[in-house]
Amino acid sequence: MRSRNPFFYERFGVPDTVDGRFDMILLHSFCVINALNKQGQGGRELAQALYDVMFVDMDRSVREMGVGDLSVGKHVRRMMKAFNGRMHAYQAGIDNASLDEALMRNLYGTVTGTVDPTNLTIMGDYIRNQVAALNTMNPDRLMQGDIEWAPVPGAGIKQRAPIVEPQKTDQAVA
């Protein structure tokens, strides 16, 4: 639930919209999946399971927003494509300035007007800090989903992620 923290929207100018919230979910998912992928085969399998559960939930969310059954698959595929593109952009930019460019294009892409460059820098640093923290945390805790996020800069917020058991579903994501 870290991505829903109002601080990102109120202080750092992330749009408090469906798109802004979607991008915050993708950013935090990137951080976790990036760390899991470094934990060998078991980590890669868990990363894939997280991806699968995430998009089953996206499917449910799209339906709850009133998208018709015939269009849901198309919407979810578009979201998956967006996620995959962002994963590559964030991975490529984690060690350089192209992360800020990717954040500007994606996280702040729907902002009308000027994006405060300080917010962009803070968000880039925030993501880099999360990746570093997750890459150095105890692998057993990471694999159990016992994630401790690095603090949000300037917010004094440090948060543990609740361990959530995935719901079983018969739905397949197209």
Automatic annotation (TrEMBL):
Alphabetized Pfam families for the sequence: Ubiq_cyt_C_chap
Q: Which InterPro entries match?
A: Ubiq_cyt_c_chap, Ubiqinol_cyt_c_chaperone_CPB3
Domain (Ubiquinol-cytochrome c chaperone) spans 10-149
- Which family, according to UniProt? Belongs to the UPF0174 family. Belongs to the CBP3 family.
User: Which protein, by its recorded name, is this?
Assistant: CBP3 protein
